[in-house]
Amino acid sequence: MLGDVRVGAVGLGTMPLSIEGRPDGARAVATVHAALDAGTTLLDTADSYHPPGGEPGEGELLVARALASYGGRTDGVLVATKGGRGRTADGGWTVNGRPEHLRRAAEASARRLGGGAIGLYQLHKPDPAVPYAESLGAVRELLDAGTVRLAGVSNVDAERILLAREVLGDRLVSVQNRYSPAVRDGGAELRLCAELGLAFLPWSPLGGISRSSLDGASALEEDPEFGAFHRVARARGVGPQRVALAWLLLSLSETVLPIPGASRPETARDSAAAAGLVLTEEELTELAAVRG
To answer: Which residues belong to the active site?
Structure first.
């Protein structure tokens, strides 16, 4: 659950479809369609998901095109976007949490996504030059104005989660932090989300099994450090990525909602299928012991 909205157990991170190394437009749209066909109902993007030198919002426009051209129903699809980051010409990333910037960015995102209220708007990253409460205040104003329906925060520690809850109340529904087989240092934030009833959206949830789209979206060679995921996958006749997602869903918290990226239709379908992979207690214990 994201607030009062029920979504599928696995979302789709669309970042690989709109940054450098992205597929052509037809395959990008086909990837979103494949995820929708497989039952995915949460699509995650950001206004900063564009190649260096590109225009803000390319990822949002892609999502809007994919939804508009989809042959099935889309009324149950929740689109999540983010504001507060940008790109430099050389491929770097910037942060801008000034309230006036966030208000303009959200209004532009809403137009690109079709003109209605943004389903889930996430503050992308704290800006060290701006008090976090001021950035959150801009999100609260967007909620009050109806520009945004639900709010989330990303790349935050437990203290900022509690501050966001104080400022946004029960309209804060999610936290998007990095968590994966390789990166497990967010346990305190994950547990806090469970206590507060907030959805925890791990970004780059396949770290250790696949590269992040920030590093190139190709799979990794089998790493002995993560061999347990490969052993379970071979025994089950599935890929280690599906096992990693099933582990995230089953072993951490009922509020975990992974958003793996995909750049091919078959990858999107495989990720969605993780919701149906039920691992045994023995398998979960083996995977939990890999790191951390």
So the answer is: 49
